[in-house]
Amino acid sequence: MSVPVAGAPRAGGRIGRPARILLALALLAAFVVALRELDAARALEALASVRGVWVAAASLCYLAILPLWAWQWHLLAPSSPSQTFSGMLRVVTTTSGVLNTTPLLVGEATGIVLLVTLTGIERTAALSVLAMDQLLVGVAKLVVLATAAALAPLPDWMSQAALGLVILVAALAALLLLGASRGVWRSDSQRGARGDGSLPDRVARVLDSLPATLAPLRSARRGGGAMALALVKKAAEVCAMLCMQRAFGLDLPVGAAILALGMLNLSTLLPIVPGNIGVYEGAIVLAYSRYGVSPEQAVGLAAVQHLCYLLALAAPGVLWAGAARWSRAPESGRR
Fold it and tell me: Residue 24: pLDDT above 50?
């Protein structure tokens, strides 16, 4: 079954925020349509034949993203005695849990707060880490889309969405490279004369600190290592999808998993529902329908894969945050 995507952008136009929202809603609608056309007996049969070993392997691939992410932020953040890998693993694990269970921007704000409180870095440095991470994630998504396009022609709507992503990534890269390359904004005498804590003074201090906080962009070791880790994280997602294909007994090429990941990357750029529930499944169903996968298998695969994703990338953070709150409860009760 080929699920049409209503509201896909027309050729020649850029895909903006309203178009991305419409795209996500269209994928959600596609998933609902696919559910209505399911044969319940065949769907249950497809789920009953799932190979648990491959599902577990897919979950481990997703779980491997957390330490890779922690290593990436460890490279991007300023070095300090309190900025350790274990502390950064706690930061990204909790941030991932919030990102996958709350509306837009809540997870990002949580990540900034945790970077400041748990690793001891300054707020400007925390914002810089998040901005550089978004840049690297954007570049990695473009690599996925370029690989998918090299293996098979992309749908028109994906090509237009990819063009919009290129523009966004290029703009962010230009801003960050400008901030990383600027020298001292004020002379020492000016800083001494106007270091009065006023708003202009605070803004000037932030601008002064940008070259240091964005230093990984000028470092082949730190910036290159972080970029490599961003690509390895995408490779882990592709491996998870390949494992899931095996779990459902699908003999599909690697390109099917890469196309599915590319569709996911585009459809979840602007989360409109917590955890991308429904949107995630719609993108997977749409991707595998292009390879002749039955609706029953595609929906079952999408549901199980999303469950594995959430268990690996959301549940640890939720449990960690819950355990931390529980451990503080007795102390507050003793006061």
Answer: yes
